[in-house]
Amino acid sequence: MSKFKNFIHKRRRGVIYLILITVSFVLIFSSGNKVVLSGKNIFYSIIYPFQFIANSTGNFIQNTLNSISQLNKIKKELDKTRSELDSYKKVIVDFNELNSQIQSLKNLLKLKESMDYQIVACEVIGRDYRKMNEVVFINKGSSSGIKENMPVISYAGGKRALVGKIAECSLFSSKVVTLNNPNYSVGALIVSDRTQCLIKGDNTKNDLVKLLYIPKDFTLKENKTEYVYTSGDSMIYPRGLEIGKIEKIIPSERYENFNEAEVRISTELTKLEYVLVLKTNYKEDDFQSLEIPE
Amino acid sequence: MIKKIIINGIVLVVITALYFTRVINVISIKDVLPDFLLILTIFNGIFISPTFGIIFGFSAGILYDVQTLSIIGINSIIYSTVGYLTFIPIKRVEIDNSIISSIIVFIFIIVKLIIFLILSAIFRDNSEIALYFKNVFVIETIYTLVISIPIFYIYKKLFRKTKNRISF
Asked: Any idea what the CATH number is for the domain that residue A130 is in?
């Protein structure tokens, strides 16, 4: 008896556990009305956790593998879509470029139609960037009837704007000396008070040229833009071609009686794509046909 | 010992009473609560004694089952088994920080899960198990692990033994 007591005492935890488990099972069977316990049921119950874990693990691996294959597929689709997008972007760029060309050509055509001269439309094929575009090259030459000293104009803001003149002429291309060229000069007229001046090329500042021989009494009024046009005095340029607008008047360093001015030219030489060469024949042309707008 | 029994008894009654009130929902995450009974059974087993863990687990399980109006006895088997098995970590590891206690709690969560699966497969509807895994298991496991850390420190302070390892 004492041995049994010792045994119980040594294993009292296990005994208590067994008693409580037994009580629990008794409670289960006494409280649950629909408890059916069969050998098959117990067997399935034992293997169920393992089945469940194996099934979950299998599903996880399968889903992971599927995800990887899906990812690869999606990556391929993404690459394909990206390349398609790139080609569409290129198409858009080409389209915009074409649109811009069409617009330029339309402007050119409009200008050509408005002129009383024979006109040769040309494309700018080269330029001297280092020297503020003081020289540009066009794709028409003597074969198109272009000769030296013919004026070159462009379409700027709906107006005919002076670009320069033909300096050299080969069979299929010509060299145009622009307003920015320091060796270039043209008779000019301040539109508001009909003052005759002289435009002189300047390549120190982009799109700015000098207007010389401005009378001392001429001043710039606030909120009024002073336009400068060709005066028509020279035999090369017809009257009434827009040159630019006066930005600033400065005292002349060379002549006491005159001021000078900085004129921002109307043609943006850096963006020049198409120009028109006026086939002037100064012996026959009637320059009066061009009017200076007020 | 009586002090420990009284404290645990009060805690047990309060927890099981609160389990099915709206008050406890304040701390629920997606309607899932941490398994306080499991944590308390484990720490009672570890910090007081495995025998105390068995009795506490059995009482907790019975009280829980009574309130759920389902088959009485399933949770008492689960928690008393957990209480019984607490002698294993006591024998093998020095439980002196929250990381070890969290690992032990996690292992007992798995133990509880296995027993739960077996008993549920025998006595309950299998759809209940699927529902448990779908909606409860992950949140409950994480939440239980998180909550076990402060409870571990409380137990450590209240019931710390001079020597954690016990002889068998």
From this structure: 2.40.10.340
